[in-house]
Amino acid sequence: MLLKRKLCLAVTLIVMDSPAWSQGGAPNHPSIVVDGQTYTPNSILTRNMGTAADQAEQFPPHKIIGNIYYVGTKTLASYLIVTPAGNVLVNTTYEANVPTIAKSVAQLGFKFSDIKIILGNHAHGDHMEGDALAKQMTGAQVVVMAEDVPALAHIKPGGKPHPIDRVITDGDTVSLGATILTAHLTAGHTRGCTTWTTTAMENGKSYNVVFGCSLRAPTVITPEIEKEFNASFKTVRALPCDVQLGDHNSEYGMIDKHARLAAGGSNPYIDKPSCSRETDLEEAMFRAILAEQAAAKGATN
After folding, report:
1. pTM higher than the cut 0.85
2. Domain of residue 108, residue span
3. Could you give the number of structural domains in the chain?
4. Beta strands 68-70 and 62-65, pairing class
5. Domain-embedded: residue 179
6. Which of 97, 107, 118, 21 is nearest to 54 (CA)?
7. Average pLDDT per consecutive 10 residues, the chain (301 residues; last block may be shorter)
């Protein structure tokens, strides 16, 4: 049952013709309608990834809130968290983007070499392929969720093994200076999909910040993945949240919020209602895929 918001959900049941899909493409079924907009697995993937140019194009680096800055590309999110003891980088994205991230860090007035810790949301190349190069450039400690270690072993750009300096589990914290980030296992998209939470100060007030991990389900949902997603949706909905971020900018409407930020006024990233929007969408699609699977199974029995 979806909480907090009423969703209009229309599901088109079509027998699945593909057992799985990757970052390279997704099917156009099932179809759902959420808040008057129609989505398919393919449209969500396309929304997240954009074009190859979007994935590489530098987005204007900018302050989000407190000590948290955006340093990623147009569609692949990367964040810099600044502390007096050094800085944290969340998501290196593709290896080819690391110089672009370094350029963004410099344009904000910080040194890339001051990065002491590298974190990631999940073990896919578009989020963590650049870890080895970023570590080579900074000497930073690479911290990963235990359940994603096997998948990371296969991410070896140019043959470079994926660096792992610290392995964490659900609920562990990573600290630098006065900043504390808590790792929440929100598996399903990958075994070790990690949602990070922290707090940030602005105008004397503390805000809860959530770096969400993708909740996008595969076309074929096994009983194990179903169990993981059910637990993850529950976990994410329970997290205190004032500022919702994500591993893809489309998950929290960054481009629109950045435009509003430039216009002045209150910080658009402080947007408590947006904390559940992506979860609602992805859970609706998850339920639709399960319904489609059940219909396909019934048709063959």
Report:
1. yes
2. 57-279
3. 1
4. antiparallel
5. yes
6. 97
7. 37 31 70 94 96 98 98 98 98 98 98 98 98 98 98 97 98 98 98 98 97 96 98 98 98 96 93 95 97 86 60
